Here is the input.
Amino acid sequence: MSTSAFVGETYRKRLIVFYIPLFLFVFAMLFPFFWMLITSIKTDAELYNRRVSPFLVRDPTFEHWRMLFQDTLFLQWVWNTLWVAVVSTGISLFAGVLGGYALARLTFRGSTVFSIWIFITYLVPPALLFIPLTGVMSFFGLMDSRASLMFAYPTFLVPFCIWLLIGYFQTIPKELEECARIDGATRVQAMVKIVLPLAVPGILSAGIFAFTLSWNEFLYALVFLSSPENKTVPVGVTGELILGDVFFWGPLMAGALFGSVPVAIVYSFFVEHYVSGMTGAVKG
Amino acid sequence: MAQILIKDLYKSYGETPAVRGINLTIDENEFVVLVGPSGCGKTTTLRMIAGLEHITAGEIYIGERLINDVPPRDRDIAMVFQNYALYPHMTVHENMSFGLRLRKLPKDEIGRRVREAAEILDIGELLDRRPKQLSGGQRQRVAMGRAIVRNPDAFLFDEPLSNLDAKLRVQMRTEIKLIHQRVRTTVVYVTHDQVEAMTLADRIVVMNDGVVEQVAPPQEMYDHPATRFVAGFIGSPAMNFLPCKLTGNGSGLSVILSDGIRLNVPANRESRYRDYADRDLMFGIRPEHLTEQRQHTNAEQQDFTCKVGVLEPMGIDTMVFMNIEGADVCARAAPRSVKGPGEDMMFTIDMQNMHLIDPESDRIL
Amino acid sequence: MADTSAATARARVSASRAGEKSRTSWLTTQLEDERVLGYVLLVPAFLLIIVFIAYPFALGVWMALTDKVVGQPGSFVGLANFAKLLDSDIFRTAAWNTVFFTVVATAIKAALGMWLAVLLNRKFRLSRVTRAAVLLPFIVPTVLSTLVWLWMLDGTFSVFNWILRWLWDLELSVFGLVVKEDFGYIRGPNWLGDPAWAMGSIIMANVWRGLPFFAISFLAALQTVPTELYDAAEIDGASGWRKFWNVTLPMIKPVAIVVVVFSFVVTFADFQLVYVLTRGGPYNSTHLLATLAYQISMHAGNLGEGAATALFMVPLLFVVIVLQLTYLRRIGVD
Ligand SMILES: Nc1ncnc2c1ncn2[C@@H]1O[C@H](COP(=O)(O)OP(=O)(O)OP(=O)(O)O)[C@@H](O)[C@H]1O
Ligand SMILES: [Mg+2]
Here is the structure.
């Protein structure tokens, strides 16, 4: 359609039906990020002066950035989030790769039923579980620790990874494995030496997507963590930078900006994997 | 290099049977080809020999060993798949040596064997390439090379040539035959291409609907099919089948195909057919035994006339289609001898090569 | 010569195989059976699901039937929590809000997402960069981007209102009626403080965040539509709209349905937006089930009642899951 749609299309028509709408969409999608940036480098005096245009920065300052990094635990939160995201992604990939392989490739009693259950748990939202999970976490003595999140996040990441990887494993020809087994490999060897290397793109997609999901998670982190030094970026920024009813918009926006940067970096390196993880997640 | 013995092999997927009781002995170094229409259970049988499919009932022996419960890796067989199943993330060399490395053979031994196999297959220059960088024919060779280096008890092939274009297929067919002559091993080869079966096999196994119809060397299969199915399946164009009546005519027997066509049964077949006299049977004759009228070279050749239907010139011969009592019949005639459609033409039929089929059992009498 | 070397090689193979045999452990043999291996591979996932999903879910159901508050064991109260909730105005508002918010936001996201996907599906310079940029709102942490919305919709400093006032000024000056002494007053809605506007504002923020997901998923689906279909439609004289209705939509319907249902579930259980933007206010007018459950359990400490509130999500979730499963079954994914 892409090319044929242009046939016989005048520039004016293209402008109206294509360039202008697309520009508006892109503008709307990116404007809030621009706003984050611009707010974080304005002086307070400028921020709270309604008489000047808010689009211009007359007196750029990095004071809010400095505050964020020096006067708050922001870097600690970044570290916490990173640690939690890496470990929970690791756990989820481990369980997801093994489970996804079993459900995609092996026939055994109950495999269909188990797939359906995976799918159901995939759709169970954290909002449904956070109250009783608090009980489970305190039972294990994990409340207010990063470990609580490392176990909680796999609850939505594992079903996601399994679901995504089932789809991916199914695209790898069965014959490769069968041939390996005839060549002398055990089932486990065939999986490790043949299937897993070929599934790397899929595993990477699942990993990237799981990483961003863990980085962004909010509810469990909000409920399980209480000490400022244990918090993740989303909870830390919203919880510790807003004191009562007083909003320090400069540092807040700096926090929002720099809290988004790590995922944005990961994302920019793996756009294609991220997208295939995302679209694969719904296609199954 | 071992005998394969299959006893009452049975396989069902849930309720539906795929293989229904197969008995087969494949001799050491024999090249056996399984043919049959799509869905008849060839692949399933092969996969059971390979250990990739659970055996529902029956037994398979390789050599002396009962292998029903032996995992594929311990069966000492090699298999070439239809899509070659080359490991995409390994080079040709790594592909070929994969099995040897798993068995922890010494490095120099592995290198030597890969080189030997590569030489046989003429793929020495390709060893460092990845499967993606190979043509279809080269992939095919690598797949065979991977089987050869293992030096297994038996080779299994599942339609290895069906992904190649027609020309390459013929070439590879010859090559497989040559390789088998060089590397003598037991081979089980699955195809649905009967030309492949005829050219390659020491013995052909024709399967249909999960059972073996007949096991015989190619020429014998062609000359003396055991069932109507085999008669129709082997040979191209297929054998003609016409309903007929067998009657006694004084001293001998004759076959009545229609009011105007009455053919005498060769004298040497009379004892074979006598019991079936006066019954409705099926008459079978291959197109090449039904030609334009020719000088008779033996006493059993007879002439009859029929109206020509459609002509299909093949170059060397022209296929003449006609209709006898509702049955479509194909004759193979010299191109310059044929009459135009709708005209009457005189044919010669060689009754020495006739077949009579009992419609109740579909067996050839 | 080939024969002898082959023979020695064979001998070596069988020797090494024999050695291997003895080393082949019981475990290796067991794992060759796919029924055993299947269960073994599922153990990690199974444990996680049992301990952190199935058990908590059961625990949640039990808690909903008790009057448990923080720090004290509760006693069984039957369906009292549910009855109490159904009786409460706040709950009923929250339930209605949840449905309204989910349906409206999903509908807008689907419509705009389709539009954006169709735009992105055309060939243009920088198309890859554009696609990557458009997806940004979806990948950054939701609460953080919601903070910007909180700032942009601020009662006093809303940039939208600044623009509105600027436009207003512009117009007035055209007629020479500028009222400069009113300068500090910003005309425009109180986006989050006015119950009439608050839900709309929340939906807007949700659409902004969720739109990329729709657009990119639809785009992926669009790219699988064979070009020949459009050529055929074009030859048949179909206009742009007709092509969209008769070719594009039917072709991507399977994916579209899954995407919509999926987003429906996520939107339905949304928590962060409301938590950051309004905390359920003003006057509890924007509570969703998730935020209400949080408020009741974590702020007021009534764990039993909170669990009951969360459980009210189950029926709708159930319907969606059943629909999805039967649909997946039908198109043969499973
Ligand atoms: N995994 C399976 N589950 C269910 N039925 C199967 C399965 N594999 C094969 N079958 C059925 O078993 C029968 C035999 O299949 P098989 O693959 O052996 O046929 P084939 O002779 O190899 O045919 P083809 O020439 O098409 O390859 C078919 O009817 C097929 O539908
Ligand atoms: Mg087959």
User: Anything to note?
Assistant: Confidence is low (pLDDT under 50) at residues 1-22 of chain C. Residues B 42-43 surround magnesium ion (ligand 2) (CB under 6 Å).
